[in-house]
């Protein structure tokens, strides 16, 4: 059975990632990309669905773990009655291979260690053919099924009941290296890795990247780890930024709200870019913009809300019957049917992110501004369409207020491109559209009786996404309409001090009701509190939210307050970028008025 979600740490190479449990078991790994089939799938079932355990034999007195500085090199230390041992594990960066290294080092005494390897390729649907290959200085175990193969090097593994196991002792000063590499099965077995060189290079690369971060203040450690998570979820070759490293971790225990998040949402990626830019990472802009230009090239009418890592358009959703689901929550899904939805807000997210790039001096490329003009032509013709909204509602299409505001923001960003940066475009026409949308929102999306903006036109419900109205400059944070909306959000959506996205029991999403507070929504509330004049409350809520990070600083999508557990796919980009924004808002409101970009809010709000 899988561990609690917060008991997992991520290691990654900016191509994919593995989840390593506190018990020393890698229970989730897809090679060579985030969206590849799993070869260890115990996270969504049990050990029979694939896992790789390296841990002490017998009783463990104490376990502690940490990342090696600002890296994704994980260091786990176990204390047993016989001694103490440390395991350093990482995915080498920059070697154009798909490797995992687990270095076992004796600290004190002599500790008996065990290795239990269960390779289950194709989402545990393919039991591989396994053979041993003697090599100079050791032994290689090779597992093959269809197009996939892995080679494991280290202590000799013996076959035992559909697994391969061994025990070995590590004494003070001893080092035992164990490695696993994926490779296409039609190729020859690759040579061993130089572990010392790979470890040093990987450590230096992560620390060098982190050295560009502008991080200060009370939440510096949480912000730095969140920025690292956002980088780890970025596919280095393509520039695509996945929403999470996992699929089908449930939003509701035992429920059906189990989705595949290993794709690039335009919204999440755009907001991630904004956050990285606000913290000094200018170099992230061009790869992301390149990915965007490739992904959405063609007719703007064909723009999707999400794509594959390389810009793949078809992300057909289907059920994986070979995995029973996390704690029995089924179905397990591969692909995401929401890719075919129309969500008007993504146009605003795209245009805001590209405007942020202009503001820091990134010049428009040959195709980037023509693409934005084409997008705006489409928005001009389609802004009145109902949509599925930010939360990918699978019920009837509606005029969601948040979507309308984001369409307003798309025009606002395009207008700034002309007025402030000298680009060419039909700015007067865009200004008329912007004002027409504003008039409609104020007439149909604001309820005078409630004193609040509403989830969609004609509704008395609110939605946590309305907290973004101030973030994009549609209203000021301390505007009476915004404060009234906040009051209704607190009244309708607050559960145990945290925010739900919306009330699922109202049936708006066409799914059975029930989910837990979404962490990003509460981070949005922190930002609103900080910039709306409630700084003490912002800090109190922020302290609470940061406490929900696990022992190595990771957050999933939701939090179950009653059980004190993380819920949903992990690590979740949206949660971590929300944390960075919220910390910036507190820092700006409390101490750093010289750095307004830290708050990552649009300027020029009416």
Describe this protein's structure.
31% of the residues lie in helices and 22% in strands. It has 14 helices and 25 strands. The strands form six sheets. It has a 15-stranded antiparallel β-sheet that branches. A two-stranded antiparallel sheet has the order 16-17. A two-stranded antiparallel ribbon has the order 18-19. A hairpin with a 2-residue loop joins strand 13 and strand 14 (163-171). Helix 4 (266-278) runs parallel beside helix 14, helix 8 (401-419) packs antiparallel against helix 9 (427-444) and helix 12 (519-531) packs antiparallel against helix 13. Residues 601-606 have low confidence and may be disordered.
Short description:
This protein is of the alpha+beta class and 606 residues long. 31% of the residues lie in helices and 22% in strands.
In round numbers, the mean pLDDT is 94
Please state the CA-atom Rg, rounded to the nearest Å.
Answer: 25 Å
Query: Which shape, going by the Cα principal axes?
Result: globular
Number of DSSP E strands: 25
Task: Report on the biggest sheet.
Answer: 15 strands, antiparallel
What's the number of structural domains? 2
Q: Total helix count? A: 14
Which terms summarize this structure?
single chain, 606 residues, alpha+beta, Beta-galactosidase, Chain A, domain 5, Glycosyltransferase, 2 domains, two-stranded antiparallel ribbon, 25 strands, 22% strand, globular
List the helices and strands and how they pair.
Elements (H helix, E strand, L loop, with lengths): L7 E5 L4 E5 L3 E6 L7 E3 L10 E6 L5 E6 L6 E6 L3 E8 L7 E21 L2 H4 L4 E7 L2 E8 L2 E7 L3 E3 L2 E9 L3 E10 L10 H16 L9 H13 L31 E2 H13 L6 H11 L10 E2 L10 E2 L13 E2 L10 H15 L8 H15 L18 H19 L7 H18 L1 E2 L4 E2 L14 H4 L8 H14 E2 L2 E2 L19 H13 L3 H13 L10 E3 L4 E3 L5 H18 L16
Helix pairs in contact: 3-14, 4-6, 4-14, 6-8, 7-8, 8-9, 12-13, 12-14, 13-14
